[in-house]
Specification:
The structure is a homotrimer of 356-residue chains. Chain A has 356 residues and is mostly helical. Chain A has one domain: NCX, central ion-binding region (A middle domain of Talin 1, Up-down Bundle). Helix content of chain A is 81%, strand content 1%. The first copy, chain A, contains 14 helices and 2 strands, in the order H-H-H-H-E-H-H-H-H-H-H-H-H-H-E-H. A two-stranded antiparallel sheet of chain A has the order 1-2. Chains A and B meet through helix 13 and helix 14 of A and helix 5 and helix 6 of B.
Chain lengths: 356, 356, 356
């Protein structure tokens, strides 16, 4: 498992993808090169995250990873906002949320569950995450409902969007205070478990400083490669006749979350399910509670407010994902079959988006 | 309790109903005869199921019963599909799902709860069943949502229906692998409990072979009587001015599930709540994850695909039933009041369907 | 904390408000006087409730408080029904339900959580309350769904409303039987906890008889002051340009629930979270399962049946509140952050109602 993330392969695939991008090779070729590069870079990131998590404790490690993993998405979405492509932004935000809750979490539970019969994690944290997800769904659902059943002026829609965005960011900041400061210990019993396992594990390969350095480096590399890859998508969309909704919500999201994928699955297979869930759920929460509201404020400061009104289909996809994910994680215990269920829902949504 | 399922009463009511059917007596009389016969045949089935469950362990017994109980419904629905009565099929599937989740489960909890203050069962199984129910709701809800908010060609709707049906069957087969093979022991602690109770119970009346033979025989008899009874419904519908939606979703479903009713309630009263819940919930899951998809594929092979798009009211009825049932069983502990709540929701839906 | 509910302040603010009302002073002044009086009267009620709860056990005390707290609302709504203002009635019922589930519960969790890291209460009761809330939502949601997707005659709508109202009242009465008689002990372990704490607490100031007398007196005073205050709202609505929906669902509800607010928050801060939750959740359940159905029957006997069909926005507000509240209380453990989440949802709904 560890051998294939060899430095030479990592550097050469990254370099090839970079050359392909800057030399403007054929887009299909660029796509393949950067897709391959993403696999290695994300593997590097997963490795670095694990090392940092080793020093920082599982939860902080998971949180760091979610933050770093979403940095690429935030940058990409920011450029989309700048060009006024609000529908594409919302589609990719939707895809990111459901991709994390269904695909990343589903693969983690499935892969981890095949190796370990039952995997457990902090049930209190799972419950809190579930409640936070419901708040995020409500914050997206209520404005859309009012927008569709009442005549609201554009000004009021923008005002409502900004207020809801502000409340979401405030909730997110309060969550950081809660989970990192006032109730840190209370949510940390998973880390305690992993500490007990430490003697059985291999010693960390990298020093603390090096691990952090590599984490930053890997995140930057993922950001670059993701962007190169996304840059080829428009051409591919036309060549293969795919809808923008499908591309935004599935292809972009899958590639953009590749880092979380590999990191979460690796952790799940090492029976650190608490950290894997933290990555998948934490990442989707961060999209809904932090990335989306920040983009709304960004659009406001650029002079044309992006409203928070998602389409009915996007809301259904998000709502459905939250309900099944919440139902599955709330008992703090998972198995391969629950992973399969999440993947089945992801496929149903994927096929539906594809056929629209 | 056991004396009234006397062989003579069983055979004579069954014979009378058969004569009434084949001699083509008045339909109202036929209806009454077959309704009475159903009570005894279903009682026989419940008895046989219990005996087999005694040998097989509670969960396998519950599963067998759900399978056998739905055999009649599958056959009836198959003939309806053959005649192209797709709306009636969906109404009876809806009625079967909500009948099991609200009426069968409600009566079991209520009757069991009056005898036993609190009844407990495997909380892990309850959680998994809840997640499976949500997946079933999502699989029915998402296509309807896309169908109603986007213009999709009939071909694409059929394709989507077949894909979703395939995913549901795959989920169901994987569930069998999970619950029967990889995690059998993990879900079996209820059986373990019942084994401890065994010394206190009466010895099984029938041998293992005879119990299995009787289970098959009883299921066949239930199938016949149910069909005779259903055959009289059209006339009754006209005579008493009932809507087809109400007849399909309530009368047919109640009669078709009579077997599960009596079996589940008997088990609940004997404090084998795990098996009773397995019958009620397992049966409704089997309808949604197996019977409905099989019917879609059957219609496809007959040349005219039945789509998976249920009406808004049917989806609301199913969704509402799943939410309240999930909320009630998820703590693995029940009482008479929770049974009453399920029955209240069943009545609200019944009155609403009746008045439409 | 106890000193400010001095008898002289209580009596003088109440008297001033009474004089203002009967001497017909300026409405804005009346509003301010009665709003101040409400604070003191509600404080008196909270104190009396606590004393009675001391003798009666936490749960019965919480139930009594919910009953007494809703007396004012029932009287006010009754007069609105008498004048045929059905939309205002439904808006204020909606506001009362969400006000209890989000504002009262949210402030209790937040204030209690700041003083006590984690607060626990009977998880069985929390689960049952959650199921009851879902039944209430279903009972309001199903008729509206049928009404909006099918053509139903007014007579049938009225009939459906009366039947559903009857089922809700029956469910409520059965709940009293269940929680007070058949399963009293089972739900009482929170009281047991508080009994253990008793040695550490201050001795009750009032005798049992006096406590009960003061509870009745305080409730009557709250009823009067609430009514005087509500009487000034129409003028204020016009003066400050607020919509009736917002006033009915937020201002009236906040003021009408002031008693529950202070009582629940006081109990939460004293770490009697079981009683605080019982007040907030019990109060909203009583509105949905008892007050609303009684008003429907009252309107029927007055000759013009008020139907049970709430608007889409009201249903969304109620449904959303129930889901987040259920998600938060179902583990029987709360903290300040969960209170904050409830308040955030309350703000989102409030801003949305305000902007419509």
């Amino acid at each position: 498992m560890k051998k294939w993330i060899s430095p030479s392969l990592l550097i050469s695939t990254f370099a090839l993808s970079a050359i392909g991008h800057y030399a403007n090779w054929d887009h299909t070729l660029q796509f393949i090169l950067s897709a391959v590069a993403v696999v290695f870079v994300a593997g590097f990131l997963g490795r670095a995250t694990e090392s940092v998590a080793h020093y920082a404790g599982q939860r902080l490690g998971g949180f760091l990873n979610a933050t770093f993993g979403n940095a690429a998405e935030l940058i990409i979405a920011f450029f989309l906002v700048k060009e006024g492509l609000y529908d594409m932004v919302k589609a990719s935000l939707t895809g990111s949320i459901i991709g994390n809750l269904l695909l990343v979490l589903g693969l983690s539970l499935f892969a981890g569950g095949l190796k370990h019969k039952i995997q457990n994690f902090n049930v209190t944290l799972a419950g809190l995450n579930g409640s936070l997800m419901i708040v995020a769904v409500i914050a997206l659902f209520v404005p859309a409902m009012f927008f569709n059943t009442h005549s609201i002026t554009e000004n009021d829609t923008d005002l409502l969007s900004l207020i809801v965005a502000g409340l979401l960011i405030a909730s997110y900041l309060a969550w950081l205070v809660f989970s990192m400061i006032t109730h840190k210990k209370f949510l940390d019993d998973v880390t305690a478990d992993s500490d007990e396992e430490l003697p059985n594990e291999h010693a960390p390969v990298w020093s603390k400083k090096r691990a952090i350095l590599y984490l930053v480096l890997a995140t930057v590399m993922v950001g670059f490669v993701s962007e190169w890859l996304v840059g080829t998508l428009e051409t591919l969309t036309e060549r293969f006749g795919l809808s923008e909704l499908f591309v935004g919500a599935f292809l972009v999201a899958i590639i953009g979350n590749a880092a979380e994928h590999s990191a979460a699955i690796l952790l799940a297979m090492k029976n650190k399910m608490g950290a894997a869930v933290e990555i998948a759920v934490g990442s989707s929460l961060q999209i809904a509670l932090f990335v989306a509201p920040v983009l709304i404020f960004a659009s406001y400061f650029m002079g044309d407010t992006m409203d928070i009104v998602f389409t009915a289909i996007e809301l259904v996809a998000i709502g459905v994902s939250v309900f099944i994910a919440k139902s599955i994680i709330q008992d703090g215990s998972t198995n391969w079959y629950e992973g399969l269920l999440l993947l089945a829902v992801y496929l149903i949504l994927g096929v539906s988006f594809y056929l629209v």
